[in-house]
Design goal:
The structure is a homotetramer. In chain A, about 50% of the residues lie in helices and about 15% in strands. Chain A is an alpha/beta fold. Chain A has a 6-stranded parallel sheet, with helices on both faces. In chain A, a hairpin with a 2-residue loop joins β11 (about 350-355) and β12 (about 360-365). Chains A, B, C, D: Keywords: Glycosidase, Hydrolase, Manganese, Metal-binding, NAD.
Chain lengths: ~425, ~425, ~425, ~425
């Protein structure tokens, strides 16, 4: 176990340079000897650009890390220590459809949590299960670090249907940690938030700075919206009274759940002006790849910040570090509940603080989710578990029940219409439904 | 224990004649010697009309039952064997407001399950707890049979905050039983439905006729909508595919949850034409009381059928019969869950089949609520438990969280506006919030 | 479904005449047209005697019931409506060994609950699973009514490892009902006991006569030991204070758990004088079969009473009646817990009151087992579940853990010695361990 | 919060010098400014000796720590940051009785887990609750670090009946860690054991050295008994097969549960020769205090090792360090289960690995206790919870049920006799039972 092989599935992603930078920065702690970037035929060109940039970055750092790009996923997975997944089935075009379809029905078009995320789950789960079969065969001791959204649902599919050691990741909790720290004039590394909930629906239940409970100050800061960062992450559209009543830190995505009307209106408007988020990202991506392709470029370009995904590499490589070096650090991850949230089913995925060591992620016991949060958590969890079943069986009935259970969907009739639309527009990408 | 005293709180209700008729019909099984009708000052006149009619009915039947009307609730409760509650704090005027307020915010204005029902719960719970104090003092062995809506929430308040022996009732399950029986050309008494869920959100999980499982036929009948009764009770606005996917019998109120858009549209339309349900009922009531007042009238008038509340007396007196005569019959009631639905909190009220005997209601173990139903059940249960807390504490924050958790309410901002409206318009009836 | 076929596995048992008598008595309610008695080669002779007696009994009653004896189990099971199991693998000789082995190690030698019952479970479970395979193939709609001990363990094996509809039975609860009724000068049919626990370790938590709670009187009667029957069933060796402290009605077998020392002493003594229970029963059996064989004998002989097993036919045929006629009666049965006892695992067998109808047994929700009973229940349940695993896998380690977990076994060293002895002495009957 | 006040209840204990040594060694991490040793009138002399030795030790180390001895408990507790309890109600004489009484009834006389520990719990709980009242009033932010046995039961009493922030401690897990490490030729600090169970009944479920799973090797070493330390801690009286079957690391006290016969025999023998453990310790104590009293003695004397209680100061001061410095270290502690062991009641104490920081102890989710361990755990937990109830209410019935539930007690009759003996011999120390 003296050197690490990383396999990056979806290696042609515009995020990859951040990952490469992270590897370079952690060279002391993480003896990476090989990074194998995989992508599909369609992403060949981008993959090649990323490969070039990555090599230049490694070279500049003077490191002896072999960077390879391949379309042969099995080759990449073979003997890997960590398989990192950040792929997007159908690419940004599919995402654009995911965001547009719901809007036709006056429903929020969000790519991870609404019907859009549902479509994405249907496309993604069969692929990740295929990847897991390869891991089981070719690298049975490898850790699967999944970033592919909807991360909570994808992780649950892997936990329930494979034997692969797997952890789901998201940059939302770390973003909240940084924002809350800033609002309290504290250092992020001294700020600890007790997180528990679901992916993209996680609450910060208590905030500690150097062990001191500063939850009430953090909530007050959230209400005042004094901190620019805080505003950015958790917008002040929440009323003061609601935040006071809730008395925990919501995550940015909670706006979609607690402020449905407002968010739908905003989405509607922007979809008519600057386009949906996917449509905007497509442009950013184009620009990014032009920059990446330049033979002079040998570092992570500043323009990547615009793309979002802040802390992405920090979150994933800190996790790799904690596993590889048996650190027993605490990270917020998507894993099997196993009773950590006592009134949630034990066999589902939750997003929760966990001690990470070489044996994996060990959730810190949270106890019962309070009644004022439990209803929403249970509703979303039911939707997620149904989405896993639908994706795996290709059963239309399960899909309809999943979509009806989704809190963004007002109505079973609307669910049925959207389902038809989703299945139609994703036909070639959803073989399990044909 | 040779003869029974019934106390009827809200005795001036237009439903009372049905109850009287039921008592008369069951004279062999239920040796009722006294019926004490109580109401508040405002309902004095109606109470007197009901008293007159009731006495004429009893006299006509040649029975020796003392019928009394009083404004002194404590006198009525003293030494009663059964206290039946069917009162409405604020009367139909309050109900009309409950139905109108949500519509202003594009939200379903339903008197029992939405924000309307929430307002009703806030008004009702302090009163029922007062009644319970009287029972604890004056008739500690009495059974409280509660029909007052929202029956699930009111029952939970009583279970959690008093020592009174209490069972909540609703005529929805028996209505479903009759409709399903008709759709299968079976007799209602030979038709058994496995019910489990919450009040006004109960599902029929399996249907048996004389022990034979005919669930699939009942679902097919529901889809075809062949039976007139079935149509009436569970409207065919559900799509065939949705019913097939759900694969259980929804209750009529499920339309509000599963078909929110359609139901809102309909309500909006009728509120502008024939008025809300409360406004229509007010007219019916007026007519009814004119008929009741006639000295010639000595039976339950046929016009009462129009009022709704079918089977109301059957449900409540069958329960009284099962308790008094230790029958061990199975009825569908609102009681403490106690683990009967294993993935629901043990200390909340559920609507479920239970064996009824002199010791009370013993729920039949249901097991885990299936994932496709659990999300909605949990969401509504959380709302209900929060509503109980809000009603008891008068805490605005709890009230806001309750309303936000209600599935009809799209948004915390909307919840806040509606809460202001509800508290304002019910000011004199909600002393706990002042 | 106009007439019933009963298959009786272990039909050569001396108990069978009681069953035949029961069928004859219930001819109005239960249209039995065929009784098929099956046994193994070794029991051929007894089977033939029982067949003869049964036919004479049916004939005398003037009934048209075909009584058949066969060694072909599959033939008997084919198209049966009810399969009743009362067989004993290895016969009374094996039982005698079961009772003798523990005594060598100063451990209670009880045929159902201690190491003796463990040995019996190891022998029985593979056979019952074979029977279930036949039922799944040849009579998939049949009900398996299991009387074979240890009934709780055998039932759990069937529930966990087959798809057969199955209910486990025991005559202990009905015996307690009769004894308690007598002690209260009440009729058994008016006496209702709330039973919950495990097989041969069930408690009567509350006692009602015609709906009136008379638990405290029943406990007082138990302490006074005034009733002869009560003495017989639940011996007064319990101290007054212990019964008062326990405050529920223990079952006769609880003496083995709560009065280990006394019971061991008694067993030791009687094993040296009149022999173990099995050894005594062997003699009774011999006498019985002589009587049965007489061509004049055409009814259940009185001498059968001595054999024990009172109410055996009542319990099993009442159950058959409740299922066949969809009665929704309440009986005490061994079935899947499914949350009925909320602090017990959901997927194990418990002995509990249940509503019985054509769809099977529906346990009445009990709630949490009180802490003063829960420890013992959990310990015995763990032992039982481990015994099922051991019997099915033939894994010596599981067997050792099961035996160590048994409350009669003081010590892992003793468990190991007894296990060696059990496996050695049952070698030919435990193929799974070879 | 710049300097720490420690209050040590039972400060006259012979263990105190180890604690003082520990404080001196940790002076960098723990800025202790005051150590207040409290004891009762009877322990005045010893307390004075300990005070003298402690002052000489602090002086020798050149530290500015104020060491005080007092009989005024409230004074000691006022404004303390940590209250450490290591007192023994009734002293070693009471312990000697605890150990002798059970032996009269052929029952293991262990001072913490059997009837002896039960007597100790009855004496200790009222006193610790009094201490907690003082803490609530005089130092509401203080942490109670309890070492007083039976630590699991005492901790549960504090958790259930006070608001004091409290953690129970035991040196058994650290002893196992050291022994297992030695058996694997690993460093203790690189050896991590997944502990979960109850106090003095905790299992090591998995063993990791630097993140590598070496559980099977540790079990093999245990079987071979190759390591002297291992032998000492977990004696080889366990058979190889039993340890293989169990497949986890038992704790030393498990011998009393799994090897009852052997242990009882040994105790019987030694009680007749060298005396019970308490009787031996009395002699050691006398010698120790002679040494302590010498004005030349200014360090922890080597003879203390003989007394037992290895790692005692390490365990408690590491915990104080983790709390004070918000370290998020993992320690094995006795705390509220809260769902960490999912099939154990949530509101009871368990012994489990937990993350320790300034907000307290956060148990790491363990999941369900495996069936082969669960029976014993549940039985002992029931006993412990009943013992808490008995100690608090002084209810003889509860006490009898507790004692009957204890796995060392064979029989309710024996329990009753022992209870009489315990209450009689502890009369003046058990006011709640008079």
């Amino acid at each position: 176990m003296s050197s690490i092989k990383l396999a990056v599935i979806g290696g042609g992603s515009s995020y990859t340079p951040e990952l490469i930078e992270g590897v370079i920065q952690r060279v002391e702690a993480l003896p990476v000897s090989e990074i194998c970037l995989v992508d599909v035929e369609d992403g060949k060109e981008k993959l090649s650009i990323i490969e070039g940039l990555s090599r230049r970055m490694v070279e500049k750092a003077g490191l002896n890390i072999r960077v390879r790009a391949t379309l042969d996923r099995r080759e990449a997975i073979r003997d890997a220590h960590f398989v990192m997944t950040q792929f997007r089935v159908g690419g940004l075009k599919a995402r654009a459809r995911d965001e547009r379809i719901p809007l036709k029905y006056n429903v929020i078009g969000q790519e991870t949590t609404g019907p859009g995320g549902f479509a994405k789950a249907l496309r993604t789960i069969p692929v990740i299960l295929d990847i897991c079969k390869d891991i089981e065969e070719l690298a049975p001791d490898a850790w699967l670090i999944n970033f592919t959204n909807p991360a909570g649902i994808v992780t649950e599919a892997v936990l329930k249907h494979t034997k692969v050691k797997s952890i789901g990741l998201c940059n939302v909790p770390i973003g909240m940690q940084y924002a809350v720290a800033e609002s309290l004039n504290a250092k992020p590394e001294e700020t600890y938030i007790e997180f528990a909930g679901l992916n993209h629906m996680v609450w910060g239940h208590r905030v500690y700075v150097n062990g001191e409970d500063r939850t009430q100050e953090a909530i007050a800061a959230l209400i005042e919206g004094g901190s620019a960062t805080m505003k950015n992450i958790i917008d002040t559209q929440f009323s003061s009274e609601f935040i006071q009543a809730l008395n925990v830190i919501p995550c940015p995505y909670h706006r979609y759940f607690y402020l449905k009307n407002t968010m739908l209106e905003e989405e509607m408007k922007s979809s008519k002006t600057e386009g949906t988020r996917a449509e905007q990202v497509m442009k950013t991506e184009e620009e990014l790849f032009e920059i990446y392709a330049s033979p002079e470029m040998d570092k992570k370009p500043e323009q990547l910040e615009k793309r979002g995904g802040a802390h992405y590499s920090k979150v994933s490589l800190n996790l790799v570090d904690a596993i590889w070096n048996n650190r027993k650090d605490i990270h917020t991850v998507n894993i099997l509940n196993n009773g950590a949230i006592s009134n949630c089913a034990p066999d589902v995925s939750v997003e929760i603080n966990a001690v990470i060591d070489s044996a994996g992620a060990h959730p810190i016991t949270f106890g019962a989710m309070p009644v004022e949060l439990n209803g929403l958590m249970q509703q979303v969890k039911s939707y997620e578990s149904l989405a896993v079943e639908a994706a795996i069986t290709g059963d239309r009935h399960k899909a309809l029940l999943a979509l009806t259970a989704n809190p963004f969907v007002p109505d079973a009739n609307v669910a049925e219409q959207m389902l038809n639309d989703i299945l139609e527009q994703n036909k070639s990408l959803l073989p399990q439904f044909s």
